[in-house]
Task: structure prediction
Amino acid sequence: MQIAQAAIDILSLASVYALVALGIALIFGVMRLINFAHGELIMLGGYTMWLLSDRPWPVMVFGTLAVPVVAALAMDRLAFRPVRGAPATTLLITSFTISYFLQNLTILVASSTAKGVPLPPVVSESVRLGALRFPLLSAATTIGAAVLLLVLALFLRSTSLGIQMRGAAEDFMMARLLGVRSNIVVAAAFAISGFLAGVVALIVVAQTGVVSPTMGLSVTLVGFVATVIGGMGSIAGAVLGGFVLGVVSVVLQIVLPLGLTPYRDAFVFAFVIAVLLLRPKGLIAARTGERV
Amino acid sequence: MLEVIDLHVRYGAINALRGATLSVERGELVAVVGPNGAGKSTLLMTIAGAVSSARGEIRFLGREIGRSSPEERVRQGIALVPERRRIFTSLTVAENLRIGMSARRDRAGAIRQRDELLTMFPILGERYASPAGQLSGGEQQQLAIARSLLTKPELLLVDEPSLGLAPRLVAQVLGTLVELRDQGTTILLVEQNALKALAVANRAYVLNRGEIREHRATSESGTAASLFDTYFGLPASPRPEGQP
Result:
């Protein structure tokens, strides 16, 4: 019974990490940009959820998913496109700038204090499966994330745009030299990344019930670490890295003696260092071509 | 069809191309030969739009294309088969070919052409669902050519197709280029292996230290020897009749 409960917790957390890591990896794949403003897309989704919390839930869910998509597309068009092709440090500084700008804009508009988001009672209900009872939210997170990952995998494997994105992730210039439109591929990556940030916002706010200007930071850091141990530039690696990090986090939470659980993250990052020492390019090394 | 006029390309302090000028007429197979580091690949990459020029003009079908993006140039009819093939190794052969069809609007025509290319390069049909990274060097070269042909180019730029291939495969790849030329595709071939390139080209240029040094019809007597003088940086000099 306890193992089944732990499995649901593991899958639920691992799914969130995988979705964040995937959002970061898609952008890194096509632009070689680590978008540290990804957390602010999650934050914008969270605040949209707060703003729309008195509206019917389909409106709230749609808004929470749509606003990060629009924000991500605006990020690409207004901030990243003008510096596309610039050195990695320029892109990195641009992403930090956007991150701080959006955080401070939120503080200016909505104050720096955390806001409670009233959630429908169904969020805290449990479901019964035979002799097992587990939180509905954990089950919905796990199933929803699995479906989303499956749909994304199908998109990347079966559609022309998906195949172009995978090709561009391996060798962006070669893809352009075959007629792949760079602006469309990059915009698609940002739109999907924004959508994933919206999904993560829904899950995180449903789990915690609060939003704050810095709510996206910690989960984005974990997502970034997941993409590193998965293999920078590898989309499958990012998902695997997210799952591995989620599994390790929950397992350590269970097996560590009570006195050591406050230091769980130290053990998690020690594990990350060990992985990188053994496999410096990550669990699934990405294949990359020349980027002229 | 293609006119390159006084083209200059710089990589920082290095002048990779210094006033390169050449032309290619429709239906020709024109070779650009020269030693390592002469600027041959830079020339093709600049024509394809992957490298920006500092100065000069690139005119294709009468239009200046120097400021067009690489993807726009593909739609205008220029395709590049790059040095070292640069196939997408994590994608299957089928997916590599599908990316080559990205710029096509006539989907039915593209699928028909893909099927024709699979007949022309049967190994690609046999390995259709395999990751392209598992292909041999020669097979990858065939995939790179087929993938570029699927963009429906009027001008095919081919960069060092012999690189890393066994002599038997080099002959096969160059034979394919001649076949394509005979079917109407205009080709600008860059090749370090000058003898092989001259054997298949209608005309040739020699590029050395970023400058076009000589241009003569390959059938002219003594041209090969003269080209070699230029190739190795010697001044072009008249030779006694009959001497190679």
